[in-house]
Design a protein that fits this description.
Layout (H helix, E strand, L loop, with lengths): L15 E3 L5 E3 L3 H20 L4 H21 L19 H15 L9 E2 L4 H26 L4 H21 L7 E2 L7
Antiparallel strand pairs: 1-2, 3-4
Length: 190
C-alpha cells in the first residue's frame, strides 16, 4: 500500500533521488528520465480523458493505471533480486501487452486503410491522443536507451511500443473512425 503523508522531503535538494529499491541516483539518470517520461505520458493522457466518454474513457483509465505499473517497474532495477525481495516489485506483464494488441485490432477492424500519413488533429480527443502518442514514443526511446545500459523488463519496452500504436489507432477512431482524419498532402505548400 502507498501512504503519502508528507509530500516534500528535501532529500532530493542536492539533485539526486531514490529508486524503488532505495538506491540514490542523479535526477537526470537514464532510469529516472525513462520513468519520468512515462509519467509525462500519463499526464498527457489525463488531458485526453477530458474529451473522452464511455468505453473510450474506460480504456484510457486502464492505460493510466498501466502507466503507473510501468513507472513502478522502471523505478525498481535489479530484476534478479525480485525473488529475494520482501515485497516483490510490480512488473509489467506480457498480458498487458496482449491486451493492447487485442484492443488495437478491435479498433482497427472498423477503419479504412490509410492512403497517406495522418497529421495530428481533427477532434480534440484525437489531437490529445496524438500528443500521447509522441510522448509515449519518447518514453520508449528512453527505455530502449536504458535497456542498452541496464537491465529492463522486456515487457515494459514492448508495452510502450504497442501503446503508441494504440494511441494512433484510437486517434483515428476519435476522428469519426478515420472519416475526419487530417491527411498529409506531400508538397502541398510548394
Amino acid at each position: 500500500m502507498v501512504v503519502l503523508n508528507r509530500i516534500y522531503t528535501r532529500t532530493g535538494d542536492g539533485g539526486d533521488t531514490a529508486l524503488g529499491n532505495g538506491t540514490r541516483v542523479a535526477k537526470n539518470a537514464a532510469r529516472v528520465e525513462a520513468y519520468g517520461t512515462v509519467d509525462e505520458t500519463n499526464a498527457t493522457l489525463g488531458l485526453a480523458r477530458l474529451h473522452a466518454e464511455g468505453e473510450a474513457d474506460a480504456a484510457l483509465a486502464r492505460i493510466q493505471n498501466d502507466l503507473f505499473d510501468l513507472g513502478a517497474d522502471l523505478c525498481r532495477p535489479d530484476m534478479a533480486a525480485d525473488a529475494r525481495a520482501e515485497y516483490p516489485p510490480l512488473r509489467v506483464t506480457p498480458a498487458q501487452v496482449t491486451r493492447l494488441e487485442t484492443e488495437i485490432d478491435a479498433m482497427n477492424a472498423h477503419l479504412a486503410p490509410l492512403r497517406s500519413f495522418v497529421l495530428p488533429g481533427g477532434s480534440a480527443l484525437a489531437a490529445h491522443l496524438h500528443l500521447c502518442r509522441t510522448v509515449s514514443r519518447r518514453a520508449e526511446r528512453l527505455c530502449v536507451a536504458l535497456a542498452a545500459e541496464e537491465e529492463v523488463n522486456p515487457a515494459a519496452v514492448k508495452y510502450l511500443n504497442r501503446l503508441s500504436d494504440w494511441f494512433f489507432v484510437a486517434s483515428r477512431v476519435a476522428n469519426g473512425n478515420g472519416a475526419d482524419d487530417v491527411l498529409w498532402v506531400p508538397g502541398a505548400n510548394r
